[in-house]
Amino acid sequence: MSYADQRETKTSSVSLKAILWGILPLILLIAIIGTIAKVGTGIESEPAAPIEVVNVEKITLNDDGIQVKVLNSGPEEITIAQVVVDGAFWNAEFSPSDTLQRFERGTIHIPYPWVQGDPHEIKLITSNGLIFTGEVAAAAATPTPTGKLFAQYALIGFYVGVIPVGLGLLWYPFLRRFSVKGMHVILSLTIGLLFFLVIDTFEEGFEMAAEAPGVFQGTGLVWFGALLSCLFLIAVDQSNDRKLSSRTLEGSRVSRKIATGIGLHNFGEGLAIGSAFAVGEAALGTFLIIGFTLHNITEGVGIAAPLLKERPSWKTFVTLALIAGGPAIIGTWAGGFIFNDTLAALFFGIGAGAILQVIYVISKMILKESEKRSLSPVSWLNFGGLSAGILIMYITALMVKF
User: For residue 358, how many other CB atoms are within 10 A of its CB?
Assistant: First the structure.
């Protein structure tokens, strides 16, 4: 056997040993866990009370009565033994069954004559005597999914998202008249707008997380979604920087990123509007439409700011308006028909991370240009622009908060 063959054989042997050492801890870990699961810890104790968790995910009111969608997020199976509506016991039908396994969903059909505008309380009593409650603040028939309602929700999302962003983009010719320092002020204003949006997105995400089943760790989903989406977009951006050397594309790319981040935020606004109409709060839904429309017109300024050194076509502006405003349509559909607190929390986290990445990119633009022209990146003018952006968003948000 030659020296080369001996060396190759030795290398293969070393590699095999390395693989075995890598697998051995996993095998031992599985064996330990299996032993504990089968034999137990040796400590004998009875739980003081059964551990059961029933989450009321959605309450629907229609001509047949009340439908309650529930989720068993506890560690064991549960059986819903009794249903109480407004203090009275009522018969109910269960689909697929009154017994739910862990993470299984079910629907409870209650033939209860609910009253328009009245509050109602539904209590679910398990076979172990635990009580879980769902409430209807003001009863109203839940909208039935139809083609007409689908189109109406789409129109609402268009009014709230696409139109105000498009109107904000119309300031582009006026913004082009600014000097380099003026452009930096506008970019700083954009950072202020986005900074407010990222805080607002986090708050919305945490509100959804509080409503989500605890087993899904909604707050963690918000943070994980934000961190991973931000780092992912930064990695993609760095990869593109190595492939694209033309600086003429820089402004357009940043504008698309801003539009994407704002679009994710506007998806959340659509969720709020659709959910309001889905539970019969039409007055609140209309209030949100007006408030969000006024609030979102300022977002067009932030999207247009990185384009001030370029001469984009009208198609570019239409595309940006659709990217930023279009998700409001999807959000309105989701909120009106298939809203889910857990997924909403994760999505808000992803949106917050995307906006943070855009803030990072714009800040780099200001620092790079300031260094090139020997300007101060944190001048009083830039500080004023950032403060103005936050103030503008805060004032317009007062029209939405309640």
Answer: 29
